[in-house]
Amino acid sequence: MTHHALIVGATGIAGSNLAEYLLAQGGWEISGLSRSQSPIAAVRTLSCDLTDAASVAAALEGIRPTHVFITAWSRQETEDENCKVNGAIVRNVLDALRGRGVNHVALVTGTKHYLGPFENYAKVAPQTPFREEQERLPNQNFYYVQEDEVFAAAAREGFTWSVHRPHTLIGYAVGNAMNMAATLGVYASLCKETGMPFVFPGSAEQWQAATDVTDARILANHLAWAATTPAAADTAFNVVNGDVFRWKWLWPRIAAYFGIEAADYPGSPQPLETKMADAAPIWDALVKKHGLKENALSRVASFWHTDADLGRQVETFNDMGRSRKAGFLAYQDTTESFTDAFDRLRADRIIP
Q: Could you list the active site residues?
């Protein structure tokens, strides 16, 4: 039997890795809903503006997916706007698919479910490890709005659903706001080129505390598993690699990959957005010197997002017990999450 996956946000880090995973598994036809063309030849791109209901409806005319994977979001200036715009993205897609026999809808959110939105980020954190049954925080959060849109459509249409809450996503992607691997790869490359110390840019708490991340490939595996496993129906899940580490342990290993030394931690945050504010000309020269693809620094690296992840002043890691009990036993080594992503970024001439 062939499933038809509609991936909303098919060119992002989560969506593109999901497309690659499903194609490798076989038995999947894939349509991708996005502004830009998917670089994966087997993905049928349906171009639209996800925030425009008419645009989404036109792109989805005649499309009858069995499974919908929502991996897209759009950052706005305030959380009130985040709720309006990102709730509308989910609603626009599911409204356009009314009555078309969708079997399952999977929604990707994240650990901000437990930490709060950017405006209130990590001000009051629940006890670690984060568990899916913890109550929602009292403040606005666009993840909650997106969940509620899925729940309402499921009650109306009768499909099953799953919610997936990854931590920091690690994997291959270019031009994605959430890609720490590319950001750190660029930072390390600039340090190597200029002799600038490779300093951990985050907080003392993150340097010392236990934490975890989510490989985009294990997220893809998790999405496919939940969408096709009855025991996972109508459930929210954390999804992380399965190991726990400290940045003071991992940082020298990232440095070693690039053939540089990890600097001593200076004792306070050194935000990359500030440190790299004038680095664009240096990056452009590095691109030319090494014959890399001509991507602007702002397209390859998302310094602001990595600063937010590494600048937290609270411990952050997730429990995977709910997935394990339901039968998902996959594991990913975190060091290899980074080095595999670096390998691919090098192979595609994104970083030197």
A: 112, 143
